[in-house]
């Protein structure tokens, strides 16, 4: 029997992207280089098919017609970011007037079309000059970031009412300092912890700066909350492994952002292994006193873990992997076109966790989506990608989200990753996610079947499942 899933009239139906992933014009109008622009210059082979951020989908030039495309499918919110290196080339010093014009134009156009801007300040794209002096390991960079954040609030805070300090701050920690996925490709867990701590401090200081300006809006952080499930619920060592994984990869930012404190258990583990970051009591007070108003949640897939099996070798440096192994659960449902697990119920579990343990803070899905390699194979005779798999993916996640909302979860919106297929860090255009297909050669945008589906859902605030 079919059921109607009705959402609130003021629910945000949106899509998400980021500056570096959509703007293009990486070397134009005074923009400085960020770590990805730089990394491409020295190691182009690290990027899928050697495609650089310069080839992102030209939002810098086509923002007006792209915003019209959002309007065409009835989206009422758009989550993107400001490029630090575009607004303040080099990371500190003079503001780039052309960037101010650009972001003003984008904001004004969104508002004119009835689309709420959700703006994030930092999506992995550190200005290279800031990385050169140590990136998030250096307090000077934290201070430069806070000045940049304040500049954004002063320039755009009269119109942007939803602000986020970071997107997935754990990713630069893991990708840049633990697993060598992103520049600066370092493997050093002690340094990774300092990066995490100063990223959190930067976030809390930006929240403080926002509050001082007394603007009429809300500020939060976007976290990729990844439920970690144990192999066996009845096995205490597996359950402990999942718990520690959660401490390291979710609660390391969730707790200080929402509750103002790092989990005591995590600090104890770090202390025991001589891995506490350099910190001061004054900094901890800043974190304590500047918790967020709102939360963005990115959810793609869960993490499944089991108790670690191999003994720790004498020369094995301390790392989270001392406590658990990843677990490939037999029979788990996989996205056959991207290799990630599909587990829609995870969104419900996150919602319950936020409701029960984090004061039911207001939150939004700031990213959720299904990446597909070689999506051209699904283009139908009418030229439209027949992405029924994506409709099913979105719908199932929304069904679980709906259930959580019915049970009191304070989720106010859903943003698909992404609007138009966009460039993604080292993966470039390998995985397509958009409501609109991007033809790389011509830059032509063509709506997909999922875009047509969302057009109806956003219009009616409901769908039948
Ligand atoms: C998210 C990031 O974690 O994953 C996005 O916030 C990224 O920036 C998205 O594009 C998808 O990643 P990928 O590698 O599948 O393109």
Automatic annotation (TrEMBL):
List the Gene3D superfamilies hit by this protein, alphabetically: Glycosidases (3.20.20.80)
Lyase recorded as keyword:
no
A GO cellular component annotation here is:
cytosol
Checking InterPro entries in the record gives: GH, Glyco_hydro_1
What Pfam families does this protein map onto? Glyco_hydro_1
Q: Name one GO molecular function term.
A: beta-glucosidase activity
One annotated GO biological process: carbohydrate catabolic process
Q: Which UniProt keywords apply?
A: Glycosidase, Hydrolase
Q: Which domain of life is it from?
A: Bacteria
The family classification in the record reads:
Belongs to the glycosyl hydrolase 1 family.
Protein name from the UniProt record: Glycoside hydrolase family 1 protein
